Structures
1.
Amino acid sequence: MALRVLFIGGTGTISSACARHAVAEGIELTLVNRGASTLRPEPEGVEAIRADVRDPGALRAALGRRTFDAVVDFVAFTPEHVRTDLEVFEGRTGQYVFISSASVYQKPPARLPITESTPLRNPHWAYARAKIACEDLLTRAYRERGFPVTIVRPSHTYDDLSVPLNFRWTDVARMRRGDPVVVHGDGTSLWTLTHHTDFARTFTGLLGHPQAIGDAFHITSDELLTWNQIYALVAAAAGAEPHLVHVPSAVIAAADPAVGEGLLGDRTHSVLFDNSKVRALVPAHGTTVPFAAGARRIVEWYDAHPEHAVVDPALEALSDRLVAAVADAPRPAAPGHGAPTATGRPAPR
């Protein structure tokens, strides 16, 4: 008998690939969304229910007395969202899958590789702290009442519509124009980018898996890239020569705190994930879309959909300010010389 699975969401970067792969695997899939998406449409073969997932009464009314083998919430970001799910789904699903985030892991990491037992602590990013609070709530529900939770932690997952650069398509447009783009730090920190189809193949294998209950797993690519390499691969796909300007993450965060949270709380730090735990349950786990291919797919999609290739004026202005700030910053003194003064002469020792 086919698994009966409910996705809350199903049209996002990660969930859209999971929905398509689930249908291809013969899962009987129901999606709950407020409305349909034109960018990432629901796949054929799913049942689509329109309801406000933030309204427990409306959600219960839409689902009636139905039960599921697994319920996956792709859009729960706060403990309040999780409490709603506990209220609605406790006793009516054999597995509840919470989509957390690899940003919950200790920042900066005390050691690599990161495993599922790495401490959860992120003082820099409110998003990550909210996910940790959600995990704590669900872990207590499992320990105290046997609520059948599985926690999944994606890292930086992308699709053809997702430009995984600091300033998204604005960076691509700047590189094509020959303008400098801002890369945090010195660009040598290691990062992992996971194509959503690779994530989906592994994720689907956890659905209905009895050994996944009460446990947590991250799902990431095994490919490692520096940020300099990531920008170079996107530039090559766009037919551009990148002019990278390296700016300390703290300087970027001071100029734009909203951008800075994600930098200081995640992308600034080198990451290396050990995927052996999830691979033990889902042997098919692996990387089939290296980022060189993924970058080409992104550029091809945007070139085919120019109406979405939007340059953000605010990010353009932020880029220009940061580039200018680095250009105007005083240079460190050469060895054996005093630091330069306002006159350009070495200061006395």
2.
Amino acid sequence: MNLTHLVSLADLSAGQITALLDRAQDLRPQALSGNTQRGALQGKSVCTLFFEPSTRTRSSFQLAAMRLGADVLGFDASHSSGSKGETAVDTMRNLEAMGVDAFVVRTSVDGQLSELIDAANASTRFINAGDGRSNHPTQGLLDMLTIRQHKGHDFSRFKIAMAGDIRHSRVARSDLHALKALGCGEIRVCGPQALLPDDATLDGCTRVADFDEAIADVDVVMMLRLQRERMQEGLVTSLEHYHSQYGLDTRRLALAKPDALVMHPGPMNRGVEITDAVADGPQSAIMAQVSNGVAVRMAVLKTIFGA
């Protein structure tokens, strides 16, 4: 497939998403160990341009690029000239002038990635590693890959519940783009009214107010992080109340199918949106999501470079 940048899964067809998932699955043996792909991006330079903190996404992109033999430059905004007033565009241009071929960008500003792409050379590649509340496409891909590995490729058979702060979640938006594109049978969404989006994000989804009802007989439960600043904003009464209404514990999980998959993009607020017994339990695929991140990001890097 021909892909210059990866900005949003909404830009991709079902066939393109499937092709990336197939490629990631093929790369899994080399993702966590192995040297057979080291020559794929030899001579290419990849910069992780992160203006927000990150553990899983940044580390897995760096590992993915190194597994493919690229030179990797890590950018830390807290120690950059941005603190002196330099704009994100000027930062990118300076790094580009040093010979960086691709940027993996995380930013808190919606739309900033498009601004960087417009200001860059036509040959420079960009991958969205999370922008504002808008998109996190590689997280969406690794979540779909995890579901496929555990449940099969026919998404039309699945009932999937997504619970939590959907309004402010870029992960939720990318997951929903992918699930709809792949023809998911039923998508149920649940959360406090103040944390549900009022735009077209939930088109095609079933809104369920009661979490017990939302989780009943589903194949996959996708939990989202409660961003604690929502409590300061008055959108959540208290962490205890939120957990009582929307927290996933063993009692609630028993309402889903016996082999239901539990997912969470991290970082987790244990005891708020999910309990230890569930997060670390036999139905949890959370660590599988993390390990799949390296393979997915290898697949995306190879694809944007045409390797």
